[in-house]
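Possible race condition, two jobs.
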Amino acid sequence: FRRLVSRFWLVRWCCRGIHKPSSAGKSRQQPHRKMVENRPSAGARYEADLPKGEHELQLYSLGTPNGQKVTIALEELGLPYDAHFVNIMKGEQFSSGFTKVNLNGKIPALVDYGAPGGEPLPIFESGAILMYLAEKVPESGLLPKDPVKRSVALQWLFFQVGTGPYLGNFGHFFKYAKEKIPYGIERFSMETKRILDVLDKRLEKNEFLAGSEYTIADIANFPWVVCLDLFYGASEELELSTYKNVARWREAIASRPAVKIGMQVNGFASPPELQNYSTNGSKK
């Protein structure tokens, strides 16, 4: 019963200020994290077409962990693509053009104009995009051909897909929430530490999450681990230095040239040539 009561009040606290925008001068929301009005409905909020570059792969995204997964994969695979900056703080993910690609109104979203069948293929959900891209270049090894290795890689990919929202909720309550709610911070801090411990134990005897080979499982998990420190500033809160195997893994992945570029594409603070980015891939 106490747990139910706690959850009830957590929901009440979470809803305050989301459905009732604060009046001018009274909001304690951080200026760089101005939230777009939340609504209980899906679909377009205004009419606007999406830009289209010269390549078959058109990415509409932002340099958040979920967006970085896809740009890292594209760089690792050496595929030509155009990456268009979507400013979610201005609600650009709710344009008619974007919601035609992803009705859920979330980045990243990809359109493949060279998909099998001859018709443009819209793809949303970062995990689905990673699988699709890796299968376009099977020789890359990012999604192993061996059925056992493939299964292991997919397990750790979907581990991230399932645990990512917990890390995101930690960031919300720890850094971005208008009002500090101890219950929310404690709950998601504890779960984030548990997730880090799972990764740390897995990496104790494995170079990468799927074993000895670097795969889309690593690409999916890496930006979220970086986010805890770089964006949330939670190194001390989460005691990140105690996860030695995660630190080793993170350093190894961060040193990869494709990762260095992929982490910057579509970023808020990135140079203009990376904020809206076009590349011929390995052909350049």
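Job #2 (started ~2 s after job #1):
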Amino acid sequence: LEGALDRLAQFFVAPTLEKDAVEREVKAVDSEYRMALQDDSWRLHSVLKATAKQDHPFSRFSTGSEQTLLEKAGGVDGLHSELKKWNRAYYNSANMRLAVVGRESLEELEQLVTADGRFGAIPSGDLPSRELGPAWTSDETQTRVRVSPVRDLRSLQLLFPLPPRKALRESDGDIKPNPEVLVSHLLGHEGRDTLHSLLRDKGWVDSLTCGAAVANDGGQLFELAVDLTDAGDEHCEEVLDLLWSWVGVVRRASSQELETANQELRDLGDVKFDFSERSSAATT
């Protein structure tokens, strides 16, 4: 553990950032980008970015290519210079958190972390502002987008902008609320007399998923999506009507009905926790 911590710390204390490695990494990034051009999930994500506010960070190109990384930076020298500036601006102690798991005592772990030349030697800096506004406002919503897939895919997605998770979880109590988890449970449940069973019995869907699709400090997107069968594709408008109708059912639910569903979620969570398999400390 001591050697691993020392090697990890040096990535931030004394990064090499060698110039000859920059061009190799750019070519690797460009190769991944070109392979992703025919990936439907990546293409859909790019469409989602195009629907967001164009002055929001989420709308930016998020992978990189040889053109965006080398040509716009003025070649390898320019990119290497920008890389060092980025490292100095963001790879500082104010912008980091460290979690160490080991068999040693807390005192021993603390000594390993605070030893000379390790994490205490990481340059200090200012914590960057994380105040982001929403990526989708009333100007970007109420829009219907049709996408032509590369593969033989048929899907339908409804996306709803929500406040950021931090805002939804604000509470004075010990248990923080998860309203989007409750809504996901109600819309995505696969039991009897549910939206999923209704669509499945009609032979219109292969699967239904529900939950947060995108989340950042400025907000999140809640997604209700179905993979359509051939018959479902032919009845796309009727499927869409049923999705909206079920959203209306959840909106009209009484406080007692919502509390009953929430208690069911808590019970399921308790059972999952009590009978969960032992996993590594790093994943718990």
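The longest helix spans residues 255-274.
Logs attached separately.
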